[in-house]
């Protein structure tokens, strides 16, 4: 097992009562509506208490799942944790509350739990979101089904039929002169999926160009994932110059951003632009950020991935064993066009109204 030094607890005070109350309400909606966890199904919460955010989430789960089994990861042997997982039956629920990322030897926790047919809610890298970021994280857990499902499906419908796209921001324009791969949804609706659950917070629609070489232009990057997997915000946005799907130049690149590009080029030869991500979570903006890049990926706006790695969309000429990098970068975005239709304006998605018929029951 992986553990933090004992001193890690000292600088992580408890969250205020109102934050725990908000977490309780948001998780109630996630469990009842997105995960559809029912009284006939068992629940197991595996947790640590190394950070104030982790402790707040555990308390919120205790309020929502009074009959669940709670297992403290740091004081439980790995064999016992695995035995608890394997004692569950399909459609039971496992919740993972992790200040870092739990390790159980070669057991890839979420993947293996899905193989067992279990529902999974995963909270990860909570130690990367200290202070006020903890409350940003809790705010991002709010489950808005009318918004996520209505706007998310509206975006997917437009992406799947769009002949091309343009991302405009900061006086720059990046053009995707190609149709797109079928868009994937992360909107808390698992009705058409084999697995139920995943990493939370949620809120994203993503795709990539069918023809990667049809991507060209310029984009300003206001945040990028650095070599420590943290959100790095330069004082001035970095401009990337893209030609035939590859980053061929930059302006105002910081040493940290240049290091990311150098690492990719050293191992992959060139820097491809692959994913086009439509983040939907309105709790995260250009100004309201969290340090964990995997959480901030849901930010309401456009993000791209740099590097050849993308396991969802296999492409000819890209060998999985040689593709090592998938680095999220976040684009200064004023407008997004799918074909001729503008789908993003004033910091919000305008692709199809939220479905007001979708309500949380009760």
Task: Considering the chains and any ligands shown, give keywords for the structure.
single chain; 362 residues; 26% strand; Rossmann fold; alpha+beta; 8 helices; five-stranded parallel β-sheet
Structural classification: alpha+beta
Helix content: 25-40%
Q: What is the alpha-carbon Rg in Å?
A: 21 Å
Distance between the termini: 41 Å
Provide the domain count. Answer: 2
Largest sheet: 14 strands, antiparallel
Shape: globular
Give a count of the beta strands, DSSP E runs of length 2 or more. Answer: 19
Number of helices: 8
Poorly predicted spans: 1-10, 354-362
Q: Average pLDDT across residues?
A: 92
**N-to-C series of helices and strands:** HEHEHEHEHHEEEEEEEEEHEHEEEEE
Percentage of β-strand residues: 25-35%
Task: Describe the structure in brief.
Helix content is 25%, strand content 26%.
What features would you describe in this structure?
With 362 residues, the chain is α+β, with helices and mostly antiparallel strands. The chain folds into two domains: 6-140, Rossmann fold (3-Layer(aba) Sandwich); 145-349, no CATH class. Helix content is 25%, strand content 26%. Strands 5, 6, 7, 9, 10, 11, 12, 13, 14, 15, 16, 17, 18 and 19 form a 14-stranded antiparallel β-sheet that branches. It has a five-stranded parallel β-sheet with strand order 2-1-3-4-8, sandwiched between helices. β10 and β11 form a beta hairpin. α1 crosses α2 (52-64). It is globular and about 55 Å long.
């Amino acid at each position: 097992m992986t553990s933090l030094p004992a001193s890690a607890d000292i600088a992580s005070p408890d969250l205020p009562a109102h934050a725990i109350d908000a977490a309780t309400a948001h998780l109630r909606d996630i469990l009842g509506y997105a995960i559809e966890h029912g009284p006939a199904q068992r629940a197991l919460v595996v947790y640590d208490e190394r950070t104030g955010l982790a402790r707040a989430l555990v308390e919120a789960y205790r309020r929502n799942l009074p009959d669940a089994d709670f297992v403290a990861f740091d004081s439980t042997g790995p064999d016992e944790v695995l035995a608890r997982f394997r004692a569950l039956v399909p459609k039971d629920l496992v919740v993972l509350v992790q200040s870092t990322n739990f390790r159980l030897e070669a057991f890839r926790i979420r993947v293996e739990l899905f193989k067992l047919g279990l529902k999974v809610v995963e909270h990860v890298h909570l130690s990367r979101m200290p202070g006020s970021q903890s409350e940003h994280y809790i705010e991002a857990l709010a489950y808005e089904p009318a918004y996520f499902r209505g706007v998310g499906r509206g975006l997917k419908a437009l992406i799947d039929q769009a002949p091309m796209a343009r991302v405009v921001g900061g006086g720059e324009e990046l053009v995707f002169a190609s149709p797109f791969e079928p868009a994937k949804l992360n909107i808390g609706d698992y009705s058409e999926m084999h697995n139920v659950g995943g990493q939370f917070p949620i809120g994203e629609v993503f795709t990539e160009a069918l023809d990667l070489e049809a991507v060209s232009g310029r984009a300003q990057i206001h945040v990028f994932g650095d070599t420590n997997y943290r959100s790095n915000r330069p004082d001035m946005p970095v401009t990337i110059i893209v030609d035939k799907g590859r980053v061929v130049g930059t302006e105002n690149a910081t040493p940290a951003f240049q290091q990311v590009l150098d690492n990719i080029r050293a191992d992959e030869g060139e820097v491809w632009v692959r994913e086009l991500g439509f983040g939907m979570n309105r709790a995260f903006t250009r100004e309201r950020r969290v340090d964990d890049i995997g959480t901030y990926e849901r930010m309401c706006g456009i993000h791209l991935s740099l590097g050849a790695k993308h396991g969802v969309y296999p492409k000819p000429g890209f060998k999985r064993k040689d593709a090592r990098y998938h680095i999220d970068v976040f684009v200064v975005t004023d407008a997004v066009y799918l074909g001729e239709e503008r789908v993003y304006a004033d910091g919000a998605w305008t692709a199809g109204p939220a479905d007001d018929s979708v309500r949380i029951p009760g």
